[in-house]
Every structure is written in structure tokens, then in C-alpha cells.
Amino acid sequence: MPEDFGRKWQDTVQPRLEIQGLMRRFGGREVVSDVSLSIAAGQVSCLLGPSGCGKSTTLRLIAGVDMPDQGVIRVDGRPIVDARTRVPPEERGIGLMFQDFALFPHLTVSQNVAFGLPRHAPDRQGRVAELLERVGMTRHADKHPHELSGGEQQRVALARALAPRPGIMLMDEPFSGLDDRLRDDIRDETLAVLKAEGTAVLLVTHEPSEAMRMADEILLMRDGRIVQSGAPYTIYNNPVDLRAAAFFSDLNVIRGRVQGALTETPFGPFLVPGVPDGAEVDIAIRPQHLAIDFDRAGKGPRSTPTHGEAARGVVERARFMGSESLVEFRMDFDGSILKAHVPWVFLPKPGTPLWLMFRRDRCFVFPHVGSQPKVA
């Protein structure tokens, strides 16, 4: 679905969850600052950011475990938190899933799933059976949590959270305790179940790959604020700043000073329209867009319209990563290290000189703002 169509569709649908201007202070410091978002039924949004940026606190405020100092939270258009309203957590219609699963050890799988349902609810056992079948746990109904694997416990936790049919599911790093080989399958299965239930999902993670895999929308959070939001493709390919770009992958960064809408680089002049003369910029290149000029290896530099001029580097080390090789070069022009991802196996010996070029249409240009995170 084209992204602009998706936005128009969301604009015409009542959000299942809507937050405006959420703020929470601890000890005079704003841990959550002016956070606003909306999630439709069946949509998966991901709060993505480093540890300590305010993601989990935001989830706690929505769940009612903590109270905001300011802001409005609505569920299906109804305020559950505002200047006059404080709906108790159990009346918000919100499900919770955490990384430790929080299953009751003395209860069976069936009893755990039934726990969130009223004792005399009609078809209580039918709902439990339906969910156990949906998550593939029917044959484990009479087991206790200690008899299950991590992936099986996660499935039970999902079924228990969905049992009362919450319109919203909050998930705080729910897959972090799973084995890497199992994690992708469990994430895909969980996503399929949540979509089938039509649940609005807000997932918290610090892993970009998880956000890219699961989310319809990524909300990139930093220092208590949402600094960028959009579809995974948009966030990855149009990062708002250097720190946002670096959060999703390694970066090579070349600094330059602008003169006449151009900045000189070892790879030739680079066009930076709209930047005033004298300003410093950072040109960021992902390692997969730094190319080795195999045709000119050992023959000297050349230039192309797409890649500009070649620059010489000497191999520092090379490692095979499974589907590609990571090669690090010490560049002649300033002694800096640049990294290149090369498809499949390419392991040149240290000291090998090679010419490098980069895809100019795949670069990011940002104003230089002083101290930057380590990105290469």
C-alpha cells in the first residue's frame, strides 16, 4: 500500500489509541517530554530507541501503572487520562506483555490463559481453547510454565494477554529473552495473531531490526522525545539527522566545508544545495554503499557520474559475516577508517591497496553539530 494512501486511511479512521502532549518528570527531569501518537485498530507501532530514552515509562503511563504530569490519553476517542480523568488500569481495555512473560508458576497453561477472564464469563473455556489453538499450544494445556520452553511460554503469555479481547496491546521488549534462532518465528507468529484479533499494538524495543520487521510505523525516541516517525522504509531511507541514521546501521562519515553549494571530498566535489558558504557538513555513507572499484584495482583512480572520483585505501582487516564480507580500509587522504560491505566472500590480505567509490544517490548530508556519536 502506498504510504500516502495509508496516511489518508488513518486520517479517516478513529484511532484506537491517541496520546497528546504526554509528559512525566522525575526529580525535576523530563523523562517523557511532549509525546504524541495515534494507533489504529490492527496497526503495529514501535517505540524504538536506546535504553533510558523514555520508552518503557511511556508504556507505563498508558497502562496506568504510572501517572503523567501532563497530557491526554484517549482510547476509542474516550479520555482515560486528562486534567480531570484517571481511569483505573483494569478498566482501560489494555493488554500488557513483558519480557519475563510473568506467567503464574502454580497454574497450568489453560489456567494462566483463563486468569484474565471473569470467572463466570460465558464460554470462558471456549475462549481459552480458541486462543490455545491459535498460538499452537493446545497439546500443552495441562502443563505448567516450568515444563515449557521460552518460546512456548511467550505463546502462552500472548494468549493470556489476548483472552479478555483488549483493544490495545502494550509490549515491552517481549522477545528479548528468546534464542536468536527462535525469535524471528515467534515474532512473526505473534504479529499474525495480533493482526487477526484487530488489536492496536504499541511495541517497545531497542533493536532496529525488530522494529523494521514488525512495525507499520516506527516512532524513534531520544531523550524522552519522539524525534521522527514514519513507515520503516521512510525512517531508514530519510533519517532526520546523523544520530537517527547511525541508530539503524554503521555509517562512514566524511566532513566537509561548503563553498558555492559544493564541498570537497577525497571522492571529488559533492553537491550540497541550500547550505550556506562556510558551513560544515557531515556526509554519511552506509557500508553497503561504499563500492570497491575492482576494474581499476592497482591501475589508479577514475571517476563516474554516479560514484564521482575514486579514493585509495589500504585494507586493515577483512571478515566474513555469513552473507557478506566486512572490509575495513585506512584511507590515504586522512588516515581515517572506512568500512565496506561486499557481497559473499571477499577477504583481501591486510596491506592490499584498493580504490573505493560511493553511491552519491545513497548518501545523507547533515549539518555538522559538533560532538557526534561514534558511527564508524
TrEMBL record:
Organism expressing this protein natively:
Rubellimicrobium rubrum
UniProt keyword Cell inner membrane present: yes
Query: What biological processes does GO assign it?
Result: quaternary ammonium group transport
**What molecular function terms (GO) are annotated for this protein?**
ABC-type ferric iron transporter activity; ATP binding; ATP hydrolysis activity
Which InterPro entries does this entry report, sorted A to Z? AAA+_ATPase, ABC_SmlMolc_Importer, ABC_transporter-like_ATP-bd, ABC_transporter-like_CS, ABC_transpr_FbpC, Mo/tungstate-bd_C_term_dom, P-loop_NTPase, Transp-assoc_OB_typ2
Q: Record's Pfam families?
A: ABC_tran, TOBE_2
UniProt xrefs under CDD domains = ABC_Carb_Solutes_like (cd03259)
Write out the entry's keywords from A to Z.
Answer: ATP-binding, Cell inner membrane, Cell membrane, Ion transport, Iron, Iron transport, Membrane, Nucleotide-binding, Translocase, Transport
Task: Report the GO terms under cellular component.
Answer: ATP-binding cassette (ABC) transporter complex
The name this protein goes by in its record: ABC transporter ATP-binding protein
Q: Which residues form the ABC transporter domain?
A: 17-248
